[in-house]
Amino acid sequence: xxxxxxxxxxxxxxxxxxxxxxxxxxxxxxxxxxxxxxxxxxxxxxxxxxxxxxxxxxxxxxxxxxxxxxxxxxxxxxxxxxxxxxxxxxxxxxxxxxxxxxxxxxxxxxxxxxxxxxxxxxxxxxxxxxxxxxxxxxxxxxxxxxxxxxxxxxxxxxxxxxxxxxxxxxxxxxxxxxxxxxxxxxxxxxxxxxxxxxxxxxxxxxxxxxxxxxxxxxxxxxxxxxxxxxxxxxxxxxxxxxxxxxxxxxxxxxxxxxxxxxxxxxxxxxxxxxxxxxxxxxxxxxxxxxxxxxxxxxxxxxxxxxxxxxxxxxxxxxxxxxxxxxxxxxxxxxxxxxxxxxxxxxxxxxxxxxxxxxxxxxxxxxxxxxxxxxxxxxxxxxxxxxxxxxxxxxxxxxxxxxxxxxxxxxxxxxxxxxxxxxxxxxxxxxxxxxxxxxxxxxxxxxxxxxxxx
Length: 453
Fold this sequence. Notes:
about 450 residues; Rossmann fold; 2 domains; 5-stranded parallel sheet; elongated
């Protein structure tokens, strides 16, 4: 059934008016629960809904109360009633042929967040909850029954509500996170504040609704790296307007990144990273080295303490890997120094992440060159490693993040090695003027240092 992307609907059996947005091939549905004095026309919630739609999520904004009900202020704070209306909306969605297979998440604002948490506590099929400036205290004892992964977003200047959310974080038994937006008040009206809400809500719903959909609908493993890249590009299309720079980890990340760069009409370049293998066991990483005028070395202190390599070993293996980096850059990008990342939205792409040592080294090196945003995008990664990488990057976007992760190659039917000729060909294709909407010369990064702001 083909539907308009945005349509006015009436949610039965309560007859609640709503606004439904459905993108092509949505990975989930987010139902909005507004705060007191607000409704389906809330400009802030509509901005969030538009961004979630662009990220591949269907959204439903609806009035939880009829106009005559709103005139009774007791109804506005009747969390049980509002939660029941949310539950009814979820049941309605599951009965619609174009929505029924989608995992459902709740986005609650202020009092609506209390209702969303109560509704999620009653329905353990709800896949995720995001609270913006929420009142989780209004959920009372229901907090301990919330099974859905829950993200609490609060402004740093909303001090009373912040304390309520800190208390709620301790009571929630599920996967949970409290994100404090610096300088923001209760309504997130400050410049850039709502953008932070949008960015993290998109991250949360994409991860938790996306994984749920994969388990029942999407096919794993991926056919090959380029097929994985095309699917990953669908999770990144909301970033197309930020003029992103796509950086691939060679060689396996290049076919994935090629599809992302093509879909986003963005330039494609490389971030050259080499593992520093342990003596007698090169597959065990002591750390990694990243190229640049001043190469960055990131060591895994736990592995270093266990292996205790000879005093000069790191210097020798680093020199060896830097020679390989120089060989590859000369082969792949003759005469081209590393790319300029300062002030850019930088998306770092690989074919998958297991332990994350190589990716961590790349992110730490890039962050010193002050990108506007630093984002990791991989088709598959260990769930534990995703959590680690979120400490290094502003956002980590995956298609699948299994708890019992074994090896990247197990998630691909075709995981043959990527050869130099393929890397060179894809870099050339990606950066031809006819293929990119951005300036297509391979960009460079400067040698100024400084931590990401």
